[in-house]
Amino acid sequence: MNEAYGVLFNWLRTNGEYELDTRPGVYGLEANRLGPVNPFTIPYESVTVFDFEMLYPIRRRGE
Q1: Which long-range contacts does 2-6 make (Cβ < 8 Å, 24+ apart)?
Q2: Which of helix, strand or coil describes residue 53?
Q3: What is the 3-state secondary structure (H, E, C) of 21-52?
Q4: Does an H or E element contain 10, and which?
Q5: Distance between CA 57 and CA 63 in Å, rounded?
Q6: 23, 5, 1: which is closest to 13 by C-alpha?
Q7: Which residue, among 45, 52, 62, has the nearest Cα to 8 in the 3D structure?
Q8: What is d(CA 57, CA 5) in angstroms, rounded to the nearest whole number?
Q9: Which of 1, 52, 48 is nearest to 28 (CA)?
Q10: Which residues contact 25 (CB under 8 A, 6 or more apart)?
Q11: Is 56 exposed, middle or buried (0-12, 13-18, 19+ CB in 10 A)?
C-alpha cells in the first residue's frame, strides 16, 4: 500500500505539469475492501493483501 502512495506522490513531485488539487471543497477518497469489518481493529501483521482505491483530485498546475 505504501508503495502505491510512493509512486503517486513521487510522480507528482517529479512532473511539472500536475499537482494535487487542495482547494477548499475538493476531496479525495481512499476506499478499502476489508469489510464487513472495521479495518482499524485488524492487526497490521495479519493483513497480507490490500484491495483499495485511492482517488485523489489532480489538476494542471496553475488552473
Answers
A1: 4/54, 5/54
A2: strand
A3: CCCCCCCCEEEECCCCCCHHHCCHHHCCCCCE
A4: helix 2-14
A5: 13
A6: 5
A7: 52
A8: 14
A9: 52
A10: none
A11: middle
Q: For residue range 1-53, list pLDDT tens digits in order.
A: 788 889 999 999 999 899 999 999 999 988 877 666 777 788 888 878 777 88
The total of other beta-carbon atoms located within 10 Å of residue 46's CB is 6
Task: Evaluate if residue 61 carries a pLDDT over 70.
Answer: yes
Closest Cα to residue 63, out of 31, 11, 17? 17
